[in-house]
Amino acid sequence: MIEKLDGSADNVLGFKVSGKIKKDDYDELVPAVKAVVDSAGSVNLLLDMAEFKWEAISAWGADMRFGHDYRKKIGKMAIVGDKRWEKWLAKAAAPFYANEAEYFASADIDAAWTWVRAE
Q1: Is the pLDDT of residue 119 over 80?
Q2: What mean pLDDT comes out for the span 83-110?
Q3: What would the 3-class secondary structure string for the chain be?
Q4: Confidence (pLDDT) at 54
Q5: CATH number at residue 81
Q6: Which pLDDT belongs to residue 55?
Q7: Count of domains in the chain?
C-alpha cells in the first residue's frame, strides 16, 4: 500500500510504503507526483519504507515507468527505514529515480523531512 503522508506540502510529498506493493498502488503515487510536477516543475519525495515487505512482479513495470517518467523531475528522494538494503536503495535511486537520494533511519524521519524541504 502507498499512502500520502500528512507532512506533504508545496513541492514536497511524503508517502508511507507498506506491505506488498501492487501495480494499482501506483494509482496513489503517480497522480500526486504528476500534479506537483505540473504546478511546481519538480518534486521532492520522502518514502517511509519501514513497513515495506516487497513489490509484486506485476508492479515492476509501473515502478520502472515511474522512474523513467519522473527521475529528472524529482530533485530529492529521502528513503526512510531500518534495513540495510534500504541504504543501498538510496544509493541506487539517484541515477534512476532522483537527482539526489539519501537514507534516513526511521528514528530520524524528522531529519528526512527537513532534508527534503531544504532548497
Answers
A1: no
A2: 82
A3: CEEECCCCECCEEEEEECEEECHHHHHHHHHHHHHHHHHHCCEEEEEECCCEEEECHHHHHHHHHHHHHHCCCEEEEEEEECCHHHHHHHHHHHHHHCCEEEEEEHHHHHHHHHHHHCC
A4: 86
A5: 3.40.50.10600
A6: 86
A7: 1
